[in-house]
Amino acid sequence: MNEAIQNLLTPEKLSHWIEVGTALLIIIIICLALLGVAAIAFKRLKRNTTNASSLTALSLSQSIINYTLVLLTLIAVLQAVGINASALIASVGVIGFAVSFGAQNLIRDFISGLFILFENQFVVGERVDIAGQTGRVVKMGLRTTTLESDDNALHIIPNGSITIVINFSRK
Q1: Radius of gyration of the chain from Cα atoms?
Q2: CA separation for the pair 2, 7 (Å, rounded)
Q3: 50: helix, strand or coil
Q4: Are 96 and 151 in contact (CB under 8 A)?
Q5: Distance (Å, whole) CA 89 – CA 83
Q6: What are the tens digits of pLDDT across the range 19-76?
Q7: pLDDT digits (tens, 9 = 90+) for 70-121
Q8: What is 81-150 written as a DSSP string?
Q9: CA 127, CA 59: separation in Å to the nearest integer?
């Protein structure tokens, strides 16, 4: 046991782990900084936008950018640790096919979210009744829609469960 620890503490191995740790720290700091910059930029854009369709597009764009940044960071972290990310992604593709049967609700939520956006059923700021909840749409994403009811409660509704929409803001 003592010999195994001594083998891990050789100058070459310590140097390697310091390099890996530094790379991981830099990757994570860059990701957090980019997420922060994106959040600030989208906050400013939303503040200067009054068009409901534009607010919806901004909300969707922010969601896509956040997911993309986190995924790219995960790939960079895996590569920094020495895991071949391309082989892992290919393996995940095969496993993902099997898992997709268990993730049908998630996929349904994303597809329903796309249809809601493309069909322009409602946008941020409109007053709607969705899934038995009435309120103002405060956020739309690919997976969920968030309503604020009259009593200031937030209702987060998976897009896949939205079957009937009553839009009180349109005639």
Answers
A1: 22
A2: 9
A3: coil
A4: no
A5: 11
A6: 888 988 999 999 999 999 999 998 888 888 888 777 778 888 888 898 889 888 988 8
A7: 888 988 888 888 888 787 777 777 777 777 777 788 888 888 988 888 888 9
A8: HT--HHHHHHHHHHHHHHHHTTTHHHHHHHHHHHHHHHTT---TT-EEEETTEEEEEEEE-SSEEEEE-T
A9: 17
What does the block give as tokens for 60? 């969707």
Q: Are 146 and 139 in contact (CB under 8 A)?
A: yes
Task: Give me the torsion for CA of 45, 39, 41, 50, rounded to 10°.
Answer: 0
Whether the Cβ atoms of residue 117 and residue 56 lie closer than 8 Å to each other: yes
Is 128 in contact with 166 (CB distance < 8 Å)?
yes
Total residue length of the chain:
171
Which amino acid makes up residue 161? S
Write out the two tokens for 40.
Answer: 């600030």
Distance, CA of 65 to chain centre: 8
- How far is it, in rounded angstroms, from Cα 36 to Cα 16? 30
Whose CA is closest to 166, among 138, 135, 145, 125? 135
Residue type, 72: L
Q: pTM (2 decimals)?
A: 0.54
Handedness of CA 29, 35, 39, 42 (dihedral sign): positive
> How far apart (Å, rounded) are the C-alpha atoms in residues 17 and 11?
10
